[in-house]
Write a structure and sequence with these properties.
Helices cover 37% and strands 20% of the residues. It is built from 9 helices and 12 strands. It starts with 5 loop residues before the first helix and ends with a helix.
Amino acid sequence: MRHEPTCFRDARPLLPVLVVLHQETSTPGRVGNALRALGHPLDIRRPRFGDLLPETLEGHAGAVVFGGPMSANDADDFITREIDWIALPLKERRPFLGICLGAQMLARQLGAKVAPHPEGRAQIGYYPVRPTAAGRAVCPDWPDQVYHWHREGFDLPRGSELLAEGDDFPNEAFRFDNAFGFQFHPDVTTAMMHRWTVRGHARLELPGARPRHHHFAGRAVHDATERAWLKAFLDRWLARAPRAAFDMALAQAAE
């Protein structure tokens, strides 16, 4: 049996993944855990609190912009700066992932509208998603339901592919070249779910939101599939890094 040299197996994880968070106590949750398990260090930055974003992603395997209670339509300077900054991974064709707010920021960078549901409905809890043929080509074995926490959604940006559909919010996931946007939260751990449903309990009263017990009942049913899907997606997502990034990792491994 042919064995790949250790340096080739271990080179890619030497590059960190840029993680953009929006609250002082936020964590990258399960996405961060999965990236670390794949061997990638995390370069965590919080632009809202003064951290600068890099001028190039040549030294990163990819970038993930996470969610937050704010809106992609807010006039705060850090919101505008982050939306503008997303042009960088798009230009450099680096793997980019936006989750909830991050997906809405990506949609806005690509010229699409982000807006509340026309009837004021929210998705807070587990809701069905239906992967498209393009979504299954990116990653098979999608979970039947995924976890959400949002009141706004995005239009499908021009030139992008719809990867998954929903009901109240029809656009659940999309791809634009090497950039992906997920309206849902594959990052949520059990601890995060406890914290969100306690601190954000008022949002559970919004039209369409699930009661608190439904969140944990849904997790018992859907979590294993979502966790396996996330691991498979991230592995394929990171493989989209340009060759130059892989060559840099090899050079670092050889030093």
